Amino acid sequence: LFFSGQVVSLVGTWMQNIALAWYVIELTHSAVAVGFLAFCRFAPFTVFGLISGVVADRFDNRRLVMVTQTASMVVALALTVLAFSGAEIVWLAYALAAAAGTALVFDAPGRHALTFQMVGRQELPNAIALNASLFNGSRVIGPAFAGVLVAAFGVGVCFAINALSFLAVLTSLWLMRVSELVKLDRPKEHPTVLRSVREGLSYARHSPQVRLVLAMTMVVSTVGFNFHVLVPVLTSETLDAGPRTFGLLSACFGAGAFTGALLTAALGRASWKALLLGVGGFSLSLLALAPLDTVAACAALLFVVGVCFTLWTANSQSLLQLSAPDHLRGRVLSLYLFAFAGLAPLGGLFTGWLSEVGGTQLAFLVAGVTGLVMTLVALREVYGRHQRAVLTQA
């Protein structure tokens, strides 16, 4: 049920993401404006990121996701009205992007925790990988459709399709047999919200594995994963192309991410080796992408970037979920999402500024170097921890 509902909904979500970015760049012709769109989309992760985990740990995950998906549908309807009205109101697009981000920040930890409830501990790494394959498979189809539809009919059609697509995921959640979900070991009484946040932070601080995953995710994501800014600018400025090419490049990244998800699912278990291989390959691919100025070459490299991206992120999520106790899982996931997107507003503005100063070449270069540095730091930490464990056993 979950899989079938997400198949429909996520395609619509990616169509909306592509259409909204193109809407802004067509009105403004500015990389900084697209960066500010990213700021609006991800600012809610900065404001509500830690609180969302507390909510996920206190409320029924299935019902929480139904509420957040309904809110996202309302935002899509509002974007549809804006687009078809013909009003060129950029600030309203920013406001609706922020509203969508607010719904997403509360949706994500609840949805990830619901994945655990659907499959249990043993099958969790495989389920996360398959969920990533679904997410990234839609990243192929959605942008490809969006590029064609935007060129033919404008952005409003994409927003309308996304609004309708939420009916599929809401129906699938409503039809679930709640009795078959894995029961969670949660306390009946909860501390204050502030104390709950502190508990999550304390757990992460005193867990070396969790701390390292979160630190690496925060740095690499903030500086390196700003494709919502870079790909539109790469298309319109560096390659001097239109929405069809934008959709093609986004789909190539999605195809790579889908392939990486299938590879992760085939591995069947989470590992530091796969995580480090993913983040290292991701960073090297960004460096290789920096000097390119042809569509074919950029498309090929974006495919490789996508493969490595999913190896990195799927293994990160699995390691965190498997290490977290039931009553803290939502907060640990919210910390991961905060690390991944909490500083994205600043990252988007920074990337937009780099693109204005030195083009996408400079932005990809800075992203790649930063990612490689963090990969080396993580390698040293993981290798040092292994060596200490061997010495202790000896």
Characterize the structure shown:
The protein is mainly alpha-helical and 394 residues long. Helices cover 86% and strands 0% of the residues. The protein has 14 helices and no strands. The termini are far apart. The model has no long low-confidence stretch (mean pLDDT 86).
What layout of secondary structure does this protein have?
Layout: H1 2-28, H2 31-58, H3 61-85, H4 90-119, H5 124-153, H6 156-175, H7 193-205, H8 208-224, H9 227-238, H10 243-267, H11 272-289, H12 295-323, H13 329-341, H14 344-393
Helix pairs in contact: 1-2, 1-5, 1-6, 1-9, 2-4, 2-9, 2-13, 2-14, 3-4, 3-6, 4-13, 5-10, 5-12, 8-12, 8-13, 8-14, 9-10, 9-14, 10-12, 11-12, 11-14
